[in-house]
Amino acid sequence: MKVLVIGASGLLGGAAAAALSDNGCEVLRASRSSDLTVDVTDPDSVRRLFETVGIVDAVVVAVGSVPFKPLAELSREDFVSGFYGKVQAQVDVVQIGMPYVADGGSFTLTTGILAREAVRTGAAAALANGALESFVLAAAAEAPRGIRINTVSPTVLVEATSHHAAFPGFAQVTAERVGQGYLKAVRGVQSGQVLIPERP
Ligand SMILES: NC(=O)c1ccc[n+]([C@@H]2O[C@H](COP(=O)([O-])OP(=O)(O)OC[C@H]3O[C@@H](n4cnc5c(N)ncnc54)[C@H](OP(=O)(O)O)[C@@H]3O)[C@@H](O)[C@H]2O)c1
Hints:
The chain is α/β, with parallel strands linked by helices. It has helices at residues 11-22, 43-53, 76-97, 123-142, 175-187; strands at 2-6, 26-31, 36-37, 56-61, 101-110, 148-152, 194-195.
């Protein structure tokens, strides 16, 4: 099974790539600084990536940037930037990449706990995660050729130490466990699901 992992050099994407490759998948690793280059905020760049890789069995997207600021300081531009940086970027991968995914293949996106629980400074991220999870629900219902669409939506990772102060008292999950969530999404049968990797 050939799987394109966008953001494979990152914490979540790296965990996804490791779990998939340990389970016999051929993993194609893409990001802005990889040999397989893509900037998901640029639809032309996403188009060029798919033209380069051709047909794949599955696509994992583990990227997304959103501003974190107190609500009173979040400008309209911040919300728009979070939308483009996390939501539209991943939606573009689905829309542009659909013809390049084999029958019965899948897309797995990345959201996070802020769709379900609040933290200070997290309003723009919450909006982005919630929007993307609703997109997955509806888009999966219309995906052609048996293609499945899911999102992995973890809590803060044990390894993401720079984020821990912003998530006081939150349960954490290991990157390895999150990698299994991506594996389940790619190898499994679910569609339209928000997959929440559980501890440890
Ligand atoms: N860390 C956590 O605890 C956690 C928990 C829940 C959800 N999340 C979500 O998971 C996603 C990934 O987080 P992470 O912690 O794994 O981030 P990370 O370690 O910073 O990794 C980000 C990855 O995405 C790539 N990337 C960044 N911008 C890109 C762009 N415009 N186009 C293409 N590739 C790009 C990076 O590589 P290049 O720099 O080479 O492009 C890198 O491979 C984010 O949306 C985050 O909100 C994270």
